[in-house]
Amino acid sequence: MIEFIDVHKSYKNFQAVKGVTFTIQDREVFGLLGPNGAGKSTLIMTMATVYRPNSGDIKVDGHSAISEPGRVKELIGISFQDPKYDRILSAREILEWHARVTGVERGEARRRIHEVLGKFGILEEANKRTWMLSGGTKKKIENAKVFVQRPKVAVFDEPTAYLDVPSRLMVWDMIDELREEGATVLLATNMMDEADRMSDRVGIVNQGRMAIVGTPSELKASLKGKDIIELRLVRDAPQFAGELEQIQEVERVDSPEENVLSVYLSNGKTLLPLIINKISSKGGIIQSVSLNEPTLEDVFLNYTGSKLV
Which of 35, 109, 133, 229 is 20 to 30 A from 144 via CA? Predict the structure, then answer.
């Protein structure tokens, strides 16, 4: 559906994007992560034909952002991080205008607008000037533009910023519905739980380059030796350390406190039965077991050297 082909983009002497190549599949939710200044926004705006790359190309449903910008624009709808509309207008006026310029038939637009405003619980505020509304409500209206448009390619930049928990869950459900209807979704977010829950695959951008792409599970598994199995035994825990260290995937075994073993390894879920069996077969009595796997934030820190804030 979307191909980024060796994309380079510079501003004067600053290289914002340095040869980025990756593909987003049809009907995929693709999470885009990266520190501030990593190049995420530049990639999005270049795909949307707002910026022109210095070299390379981006193809959306087979259409080039360079040679067919008009066709690409017809396919894309964007919800920006900060609302982009005239705040003198009401929510209804904004959505009616957006539906008109994106080619939604008038009767269908009215139906969609009423449905989306209802889902967001802002029907009663629909005729208020948006400068009078809260930050969360303004963000709902920004998202609503895409949900009314229902584009082939839906781009959400921080879709749940400023929103409370029920509204976040509603946005997630509505994005799922878009995908089920046939949309491909590009999700740029600073919220790790959002990227983990929503994304079929995630790409981490750092210093203008794509550091890694994969499913959330694949990215976590790429951190070798970062799973931790903690075993609490009735007695004699240290005597089992050497036995466990013989397992190929085990990086090391520590005993942080009496009768507790911390096993650092890869593929913890797969190896947990083997570890329990090894201890039990040697007469060990296990009181409790816990498994801690790497998070997407651990992956981000590993590939960028910084936390996502």
Answer: 35
Nearest alpha-carbon partner for 65 in 89, 77, 48: 48
Residue 303 forms part of a structural domain: no
pLDDT band at 236, cuts 50/70/90? confident
Please give the model's pTM, rounded to 2 decimal places: 0.85
Quick check: is 309 in a domain? no
Looking at 163, 187, 220, which one is the last position of a domain? 220
- Side chain identity at residue 144, one-letter code: A
How far from chain centre, in Å, is Cα 298?
A: 15
- Give the residue among 70, 53, 141 at the shortest CA–CA distance from 99: 141
φ, ψ of residue 215 in degrees (nearest 5): -70, 160
How many angstroms separate the first and last alpha carbons of the chain?
Answer: 30
∠290-296-298 over CA atoms, to 5°?
Answer: 75
Residue-range definition of the domain harbouring residue 285 = 224-293
Q: Are residues 196 and 242 in the same domain?
A: no
Last residue of a domain, one of 166, 188, 220: 220
Given a cut of 80, whether residue 306 has pLDDT beyond it is no
What average pLDDT does the segment 228-242 reach?
A: 90
Are both 174 and 279 inside the same structural domain?
Answer: no
Closest by CA to 198, choosing from 229, 177, 224, 221, is: 177
Question: What digits encode the pLDDT tens for the residues 22-52?
Answer: 999 999 999 999 888 888 999 999 999 999 9
Q: Edge to edge, what strands does the sheet with 14-24 contain?
A: 14-24, 2-11, 55-60, 63-64
CA-based nearest residue to 186, from 175, 171, 197: 175
- Average pLDDT of every residue of the chain: 92
For residue 305, is it within any domain? Answer: no
pLDDT, position 304: 86
276 and 285 Cβ atoms separated by less than 8 Å: no
Question: How many distinct structural domains can be found in the chain?
Answer: 2
Same domain, 189 and 254: no
Which residue matches tokens 């910008």? Answer: 69
